[in-house]
Structure formats: structure tokens, C-alpha cells
Amino acid sequence: MLYLAFAAIPIFDNSATFAAEPKAPDSSVDRGYKALTETPFVPPLWSYSSYDKLWKVWEAKEKPANYQGEVQKRYGLHSAPFKNGELPMGLRKASFLIEGLTIDCMVCHAGSILGKSYIGLGNSSLDVHALFEDLNLAEGRKTKLPFTFSNARGTNEAGGMGVYLLGYREPDLKLRSSRKDLGLHDDLCEDVPAWWILKKKQTMYYTGGADARSVRSKMQFMMSPLVSRADFERHEKAFQDIDAFIKSVEAPKYPFPIDQKLADKGGLVFNENCAKCHGTYGEKWTYPNKIIPIEQIGTDRKRFDGITAKFGEAYNESWFSKEKGDGYLVTQTKGYQAPPLDGIWATAPYLHNGSVPTLYALLKSDVRPKLFTRSFETNEADYDRDKVGWKITEVKSIPMSISVFEQRKYYDTSKPGRSNRGHTFGDDLTEGERKAVLEYLKTL
């Protein structure tokens, strides 16, 4: 996925292939789950010993007794609900001429809520920059990462990663000797959306600029310099199955008592005020797949502006777009896509940049915190059942004496890409209506 100081890793002939094909279970969904949880699609980025040496980077006096737990806590990783050795979700062993450690989709696309891990829940605790930086240091690489992978913990620069990696590829995916400028930005601050909403969508990503049917678009993370065009083609069938699995994932149900009478009232308010953009729910659900113009939604436009036409042109010329005849081209839209709200109780924080910690604050813009931090734990004690989202601590300023690692735990809405303005559609509700809508949203 990443070009992380590869000077320390020999670049072998990239016509070689890696990772055995998964054995075929009964259905495409089953095969997709098996491929996702068992197959490393990216060759080793670090030696396996780097994982065991992370504690030395922390300057701990000795290796902690509960080492996996401390790794998970430091980087915002979560226990795997499948066999993954001693590794948390998102990390796995891989073999490609050498045995080593690599990452997979679930470093970002598997999270935890109320202490339980879910594949397909965006990881809102992750500090991906610290994870990559510390693994590099444990590997003995002292060069800086090529760009910022996360500015605020729980968010990432996934769009920037895609732009960065494609810059090293020709349209046929052959490696370039130097990176092409495709308008790289690393201050877009993206929250990770839940996989379970994709099944309803015709278009995907925050601007709705890509076709949700595209399988190859979901393979972009494979762009390690050791991955050849042949590898992409060989694994495309596995990703068709992974796509089927992604679209089979269901949202977890709200586990606490719900005031059904209040929720019913909230459903009426929701259908009158919110359904035209976010759809209706239940057996006969509807979803309009609507792109809201940036001037109308009013939310931070960094992500909207940050993936440029240069990248779109390069993507549309590349192998990734040449799927199903004329292919699935990316397009420039006028704003952000209003997502389906299935399982929204579990997907805090809110807005595309994770700038709003609770649904209550999303529906009442004048109470949104300007500068805040939270535990980044996902237990019941960390969850705000009344406001629906994460409990936070508001602060007036970030202590200047703390490390950059600690600074990323603070969300500063005055910084580029992190504004919490916009989406003020709940401001006109009465307090009673707002509470009723919150109760209704718990049922989705």
C-alpha cells in the first residue's frame, strides 16, 4: 500500500507474484471473507521483528506484559474476531521472498464499539501515522514518512495516499522512475465510513465521484512497488468476492433500551426533514443517492477540493478504470454525498472529517466543540448514550510541551480540513423534536 522508506527493502523484479490464492468456499461472500481475513495482498513492509521491538521506540524500560493490549491502545487497533495470531486487525504476517509484517484493509476498515470488534466499522481510534512511523523506527529506518498519513487521531489521509501511490504508476500500472505530480494534499482529514452503507449506494467516496460497482477502485491500496500488473489481475477475482462480502455486511443493532414511542415521533420528524437526502428506512427503504452542492451543505471543503482533476484524469487513463467495457470512470461532482444512516449510532464521530463527536451536536450546530480530545477507547464507559457518540473533553488550548503523537489526540476545528461548520439542518428543530430524532436514529 505504501512507499515507506523502501530503501531499506530490496526492490526485486516486480514481475514476481506473491500470496497464495484462497481456497474457494461455497459462496462469493464466503470466499470474500476468507480472502479478506487470510490473504496478504501487500508484500511485507517491515520485518516481523519490528512489531516485537515497538516498545523500544516508546522508550519503555521493558516489554509490557500485556504487549498486544498496549500496542492496540497506543495505535488505536482492535482485537481480531478471526484467527490472526497475536496480531490485531490491520496487521498480518506476509511472505514474499522474505517473511515479514504487512497491513491490510482492516487497519482502517475494522473498528470497535462498546468493546466489540466489527469488520466494516470505520476505525475511529486509529493513529495510522504513528503506527507507520514507529514500525519504521523499529525497523531501523530514520527517514521521515513521505507525507502526513494522519493529522488528527481517528482520521486519515486516504485520499492523499491514493494520489501519492498512483503518481508512481503508468496507466498500465508499470512503475515510474519518479513520481508524477497529481496534486497531492495531506490535509483532507477523512473519517472512515462504514462498509455496510455501500450496498445502498450507486456512487461512493465522500464526493460520490466513483461508481460503487467498481471492484478495481477498491484495489488501489495494493500499489506497493513490489506489486506487478500481473498481481493485480491475478487477485481481481478475489476482490470481486471481497466486494460481495463488503456489500453483505450489516450494521450492528443498538444494544441499549430504546423509547419506542419517542422514536416513532422522531421517525415522523426525520421523514419530514431528513429523508429527502438520507432516505427512508425499514422493509421498503429508499435511498436517493443525492450529492449535496458544497455551498448548500456548507461543510469543510478541503476534501472536496483536495482530490484534483489531475488525479481524476490519471485514474481514468489507468487500469483501475478499464473495468466492464467502457469502465467505471471517476467524475467531478458538485459537493458531498448524503450517506445512508444505517447503524449511525455506531459510527461516531460525524461529518466527513470526524469533526463532530455526537449526533446531538450534529443536529445542534451551536454546541459543537471547537477543540476537544477523548479517550480513544471504545468501551461502554467511553460512549455517550444520551448524545449518541463519543464522550469528549473540551479544552481551551493544546499543551505546547507535548509530543506530536499526543497533539494528534486533540481535534482542533480551526485547522485546515477540520472545520465543524455546515450541515445546520437540525438547528430549526425544537429540543423535543431533536431528542425524538436522536431516539429514532438509534433504531436504524
From TrEMBL:
This is Cytochrome c domain-containing protein. One of its GO terms (molecular function) is heme binding. SUPFAM superfamilies: Cytochrome c. Pfam families: RoxA-like_Cyt-c. PANTHER family: BLR7738 PROTEIN (PTHR30600:SF9), CYTOCHROME C PEROXIDASE-RELATED (PTHR30600). It comes from the Bacteria. The keyword Heme applies. Keywords: Heme, Iron, Metal-binding. InterPro entries: Cyt_c-like_dom, Cyt_c-like_dom_sf, Cytochrome_c_Peroxidase/MauG. Residues 261-444 form the Cytochrome c domain. The keyword Iron applies.
